Amino acid sequence: MSKMKKPLGITIISILVLWGSLSSLIFAVVIAMHIDNRWPVAVQLLNALVLAGTGVGLWKLRNWARVVLILLLVLNAAVSLAAVLDNVLVQHDYKFAGVLFLLFSISVLLIYYVNHRSVQQAFASLSAWPTTIKTLVLAVFTVLLAFPFYWMVVATFKQNLDLYTVENNPFIFNANPTLDNLRLLFETRFVQWLGNTALVGVVVVAITLFLAVPAAYALARLTGRWGERLGIAIFLTYLVPPTLLFIPLARVVARLGLQDSIWALVLIYPSFTVPFSIWLLMGFFKSIPKELEDAAMVDGLTRFGAFIKMVIPISISGILTVVIFTFTLVTQEFVYALTFISSESKQMVGVGIPIFLVRGDVYFWGSLMAACLIASLPIAFLYNLFLDRFIAGFTVGAVKG
């Protein structure tokens, strides 16, 4: 089969893209010679690298390069259109809006051209739209999910003057990074608050599993409608708001002499982690065929042995979901921790941070973001590590429960 001839338009576009890469490289060198800030230089170098790869890929008729070009054109069209609306509706600068609209029109025409049938044949008749749409959706969700962590990192190491100056770009370092925010954070009892939260979380997770796993199994295997009705009734107790419960629970805590103690939280937190965990695990246990347990008991196991050796290993996804869900609730709970703990040394991280890093109307944003970043990274790591099992836990529990 003869080699497909390269369209003239693709040749011109690849040359222009390579020229743009060279321009970005030269611009980065000029910026580095006159400005101390390295962020604009890094952005220009990254831009030059992307354009160079795209230009070479287009020259060699690689379909991935066409996908990258379409993504860049879509991004340029979206930014140009937003700028046109801003200049027309807000600033009333119609001449500049006309230039931006011209850029928008060129981007749209180029998108149409690179998806034309003749161009598509040159790229082995591969369509760029499926990959482009998937990449766009993935990029949007990636940016939305990663941006809070990026913002916390930037705010953590920003100087206060850089952070509060309105004219500065809030998304980059306009001045040299600093460690002052971390120093201020660790001057508090932040590490001790993290330890308190971890201790309470581990103990509450253990109590929740000890109570929820056998209860959910018993309700799942209870014949008739009573098992489902009892499960729903237990789940409804989870929906009672904490603002209605903390007053009677305060009386219980006072009677037990647990005021200003983290063990008060260990006593209270299972009251809302256990009901939801029972409801969630019931769906898992219902999805396990009862015949497996019957076969295990025929082979000589007791019902408890079948439960331990057959049911529990199959239900690991649901149990991991309960563990992550319970620990997350403990770390983010505020009302009970604020009500029952008053000493600084016994605070949970979710209460200690806003209390001691917000003084009147003064917010230490850099230290607040540093605390949020350090406290959220372990939970984010756990979610990503067991993501598949976590999704399976909620979907099976929702469908079967």
Structure explained in plain terms:
This protein is mostly helical and 401 residues long. The chain folds into 2 domains: 8-127, no CATH class; 183-400, MetI-like (MetI-like fold), CATH 1.10.3720. The chain contains 20 helices and 2 strands. It has helices at 8-34, 39-59, 63-91, 94-114, 117-122, 129-156, 160-164, 180-187, 190-221, 226-238, 242-255, 262-268, 270-287, 290-298, 303-314, 316-332, 335-340, 349-357, 365-385, 387-400, and strands at residues 358-359, 362-363. The protein has a two-stranded antiparallel sheet. Helix 1 (8-34) runs antiparallel to helix 2 (39-59), helix 2 packs across helix 3 and helix 9 (190-221) packs across helix 13 (270-287). The longest helix has 32 residues, at 190-221. The chain is extended. The chain starts with 7 loop residues before the first helix and ends with a helix.
Structural key phrases:
two-stranded antiparallel sheet; 401 residues; mainly alpha; single chain; MetI-like fold; 2 domains; 20 helices
What level of helicity do the residues show?
over 70%
Shape: extended
Strand arrangement across the biggest beta sheet: 1-2
- The total strand number stands at 2
Report, as a whole number of angstroms, the end-to-end distance: 58 Å
- What is the overall pLDDT average? 84
What is the CATH domain class of the largest domain? Mainly Alpha
In a nutshell, what does this entry contain?
The protein has 401 residues and is mostly helical.
